[in-house]
């Protein structure tokens, strides 16, 4: 395989980016009519970190949370999930933690209202980035949302520099969310600048379209996307196709198809994070890409059957039981 | 009494300011541990408008809401409560409606996390203010939160000008919320500029302290507060003392004490809005100040026994039943 | 006369507002072709302060300048002109002093390019306002440009409050400059809020139109302007008509016409400031309004015959010599 | 030599970045005391473009100027200098062109006050970048000042992408100016992101220190600087040492020393721009690096003997005459 991890490093993956609050409607239907809600920790890199920790990886976090009840809740939750929170800073400027209000109109039509104005996670700055900490991990996972504003944007590029010169693999997930960017041009430019420094890029087709909106406008062509990224030294490109599964392309020219497991869907949120985290687990623990994809698909299927993103992420045991059960049924 | 309303005007009170979303924890205790929440319409002027409409006044609203599920919910709710929503504009800039997360640590210790960055209600501008509409009301109720940012701030001063030249009485409630102002100096300056244009000011002692922080720093003296405001042509000053009741001072030198009714407290939020709205009902419907205070105290007592601000506001029938029941018990 | 000054106060007028840099083309013609320039101190309140000091008044200044060569030059120049600069603060944020590039296309067609983004003078804040200092002056002159941004805007309203409670007369000059305001609505609202706190308002017809753009849109009617301001307790209203002279309206219903002296015009900039400063000198030194207008017109005529605003302002001796000379010629 | 240009391309160099106004004191001494000034076109990439055009290269410009007299003057001046101005956009937002006030305290102590708040040149955006135009040039010269703010920053990265995929060489000059950046971290991050996409980097030691402030803090070591940049695929690194000359390092490990010519110094501004432009002329017209350095040093020496940056840049004829004259004297 094209992507190698330095197994001498004591820790597995450090995630960087927003760790925020999900407030999801309990009632299925239009948000206008929803009456009660449940609160979870959310944000793509946080969900992915939980997924990786659930699978048994040694996970750390680089982030910044609000100096209030929500910020404390986020740290406590991640800690409870076994994630090292020593590098989650506390914002003293009065900024709040971001909120995502989740509307579950139907199991397949989920929307969210995102509150991301002046949020604590975007206030992380270069002076808070610790090279020694990063150097202990086999890989760093970067969420592209942190690229949307200064000073978080610069902190991301600094993390990438520190990772590169310490032999830490870089995984980049654009994590695009409507309404978080000043302009499409900014998203396209900073996505590409970050992607070309990554060893692995994980994104949906829509996210690649955002990334290519200035350089390959309107192409939306998987082959071009892969060719462009591999030519910039990315080693592994993952294109997620939602319920159609995903495809992996590697620098040695191989292609791997990940097929989804059938699932009882409660909401579609969080499937991609469970997928990415579990796939990372596979790669780092030495499984083949095909095996890793199988694990990732199973974790996805389990997650969308629960109400939350972070809390519905399965453990390794649950994932393996799911695969066993499903394969038995299929083979009968 | 010093404050007269033009009874020839067809409508009663038009409220101006934030109409936002309250998301209150269902569990009593620290917010970190709260799991489920309930959604309501909130925001001081919205709550007060609902209180007035519940009491039977003809109420209108000047405001701006987000172009999303929350904005639509706010308009629908106010409409359902009998409030004229024809002058609630819809923000097309992508701004969200403000959110207030309510923590009910104990019945007497309630806190909130306020999300008010780039919110739709502060985007209302002078060009959206309709003099003819305002001229139809006996009074306009101004929430001081709208003074915290442009263009809403200028819209408030324009509403006041239109009110004055059309014989519409002005009621000003500073509605101070931590974290909504750039600086204490801004709060002090714009509160005073607005208060001196009002016929009636309703505020807590803490809010008067904010208003006086530049001109009477550290005094916190009710007599000075009243003297200052009456000298600037305010006709009626109400100082709210929380569970200790409130005191009314009028331009003719009279003082009226409003005593609270005993209440089973669920949360303290919203008591002041129910009080202000019901007191307005009393004044406008020709009751004496003492009677109006009695109604206001009863409405307060009922509201703090419910979970929300807007939804727990009583009807005229409930208020009168409460007073009758309480007075009977007391006289027994 | 309707406007009285407390002659017991030891100082005459304290001006508040921008003291900036004028860089005027030496060559008459389009600015594109201008090669050399001359530097002066400028800004309406600075020019007016110089005019008043030249006439012999005891003048002070409330302002803020950049911590650079231009800021130091401004303080040195005002000091040299006999103005007390003890209350000119120095901005430590890195902001620059504003610049006005002057184009003298022809003696009667003068334009300027204004650099007023993040300028030091708008950074003056309430904490820098000294009530005791203000209380020593008979009058304070407020430039409306300081109302265009926070924190200067709030500082202006605080100065007005301090002036009122210490018996200091307030003179308000809107000092409108294209490109300094976020919106016409802001200019209209804050101009009116400031004007109604003033004892005297001095402005051009165009500036009154800006002030009235929300409340008397498109009227442009001197009588309405005067009626509106006098009804808000302004005691003296001056409407400047450029080379047509000016008219003064007082609270006791009197009207005074100021006729311009014929002048050899080099540039039209600064005429209004010389006029306002010299008129103030007249009022404070006990001259009649008619006499004061005569002095003001003479100072105007002299100023527009020079290249700069501040530096071309005449002394009392020059003004009186001009009047004597002119009257002799006329009477011959 | 390591750096090759595609000689089939019809045009030589397109410069991108600020084209602004220099207003330089005519009197030598402290700026406070300067009375008269002369106006020029300035801004590092504009000066460099003029230097290249003067030497006979076919030069274009990508930029944005104000919609006022200064903006028109800039375009007219560049056009007059033979530069293609078809891709200089006109800002319609009301932004001004930047101004640099030059203080010539003594021939060797020159300072400037920079006005760069909301300037037109930083408003250039991705939608104004024309790939076909760029593709016609052998090289593009990027000024790092454009990296200081959006949307110009993104436009720079887009220009670099377009250059790379069209075989256009990229020359990067950080062009650091005090007070133009939000933070040192931003300067460091975007300088490095741009430098590593360049074929050639031209900067002073101080500018490399800014670039390395996060990754090689406090090192200030030429060898490390060169090693770092060459490892990122830069082909030619130039380190300017002011009056000590400059050193060139190429990817093939060679080092070239450029020695300064003795000069009668009027002001030090602009020496670097003349140097860079003339050096580019040398490389593109096929001269050796040593010859190119000789030309560059001569152009520098001539420029600092004049009052302006742009206007004092010599023609090819003047440069060659200077070299001939100097070499004859030396050899006598």
Automatic annotation (TrEMBL), chains A, B, C, D:
Domain spans labelled Carbohydrate kinase PfkB: 12-315
One Pfam family from the record: PfkB
EC number: 2.7.1.92
UniProt keyword annotations, A-Z: ATP-binding, Kinase, Nucleotide-binding, Transferase
Main EC class the enzyme belongs to: transferase
GO molecular function: 5-dehydro-2-deoxygluconokinase activity
InterPro entries to which the protein is assigned, alphabetical: Myo_inos_IolC, Myo_inos_IolC-like_sf, PfkB_Carbo_kinase, PfkB_dom, Ribokinase-like
Gene3D superfamilies tied to this protein: 3.40.1190.20, putative 5-dehydro-2- deoxygluconokinase
Domain of life the protein comes from: Bacteria
Family, per entry: Belongs to the carbohydrate kinase PfkB family.
Annotated protein name in UniProt: 5-dehydro-2-deoxygluconokinase
Gene from which this protein is expressed: iolC
């Amino acid at each position: 395989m094209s992507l190698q991890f330095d197994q001498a490093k004591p820790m597995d993956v450090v995630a960087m980016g927003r760790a925020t609050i999900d407030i999801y409607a309990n009632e299925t239907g239009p948000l206008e009519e929803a009456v009660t809600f449940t609160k979870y920790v959310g944000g793509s890199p946080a969900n992915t970190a939980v997924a990786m920790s659930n699978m048994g990886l040694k996970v750390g976090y680089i982030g910044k949370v609000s100096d209030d009840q929500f910020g404390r809740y986020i740290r406590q939750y991640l800690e409870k999930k076994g994630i090292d929170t020593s590098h989650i800073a506390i914002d003293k400027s009065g900024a709040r933690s971001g909120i995502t209000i989740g509307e579950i109109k139907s199991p397949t039509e989920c929307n969210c209202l995102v509150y991301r104005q002046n949020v604590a996670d975007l206030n992380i700055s270069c002076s808070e980035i610790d090279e020694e900490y990063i150097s202990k991990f086999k890989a760093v996972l970067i969420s592209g949302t942190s690229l949307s504003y200064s000073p978080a944007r610069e902190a991301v590029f600094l993390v990438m520099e520190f990772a590169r010169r310490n032999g830490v693999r870089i995984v980049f997930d654009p994590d695009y969310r409507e309404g978080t960017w000043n302009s499409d041009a900014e998203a396209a430019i900073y996505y590409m600048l970050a992607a070309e420094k990554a060893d692995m890029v994980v994104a949906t087709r829509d996210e690649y379209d955002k990334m290519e909106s200035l350089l390959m406008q309107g192409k939306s062509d998987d082959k071009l996307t892969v060719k462009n990224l591999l030519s910039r030294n990315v080693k592994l490109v993952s294109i997620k196709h939602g319920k159609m599964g995903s495809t992996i392309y590697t620098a040695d020219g191989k292609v791997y198809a990940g097929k989804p497991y059938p699932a009882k869907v409660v909401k579609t949120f969080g499937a991609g994070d469970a997928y990415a985290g579990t796939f990372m687990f596979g790669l780092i623990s030495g499984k083949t890409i095909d095996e890793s994809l199988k694990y990732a698909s199973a974790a996805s299927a389990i997650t969308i059957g629960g109400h939350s993103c972070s809390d519905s992420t399965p453990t390794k045991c649950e994932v393996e039981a799911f695969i066993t059960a499903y394969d038995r049924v299929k083979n009968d």
